[in-house]
Amino acid sequence: MKSRAAKTFTYGYDLSAPDAFKATGSFVVTSHKTRLTHAAVRHLLPQSAPWRGVTDHPIPISNGDILITFHSLGTYVHRKLLDWRRRGLRMSAAEEEAYLHMWQVALHLLGVRDEFIPNSWAAAEEQSRY
Questions:
Q1: What percent of the chain lies above the pLDDT cut of 90?
Q2: How many CB atoms lie within 10 A of CB 89?
Q3: Cα separation of 46 and 58, whole Å?
Q4: Exposure letters 60-70 (e unless 16+ CB within 10 A, then b)
Q5: What radius of gyration do the chain's Cα atoms show?
Q6: Are the CB atoms for 34 and 11 separated by under 8 Å?
Q7: Do both 67 and 122 map to the same domain?
Q8: Model confidence over 77-99: pLDDT tens digits?
Q9: Are 74 and 120 part of one and the same domain?
């Protein structure tokens, strides 16, 4: 579990780097590694008898699972930014939209189907309630 937490932290750290999407950034490589890891888990875990004995889900790491992680990171941080804005943080509408777009691209790179990727923060908030 420690390794998974470290990889999730690395994903978020690389995503938030100023050069995340540039050739000098690490995010795209980190994202591809994460997607490959998810694919391996989706392939191998259902072959495990102990796993089959404790779940009724046929495939691990679904789009829903990835979105839960997004909401625990991206949507949660957005809420905090809004709280800080009320306390004087300067954040333009363009910066707020750029933050959403960053997460939309990240979700796309992880293979989340486009119809599940929130198109606004209001949609993200609504989706996070499920």
A1: 74
A2: 11
A3: 7
A4: bbeeeebbeeb
A5: 16
A6: yes
A7: yes
A8: 999 999 999 999 998 999 999 99
A9: yes
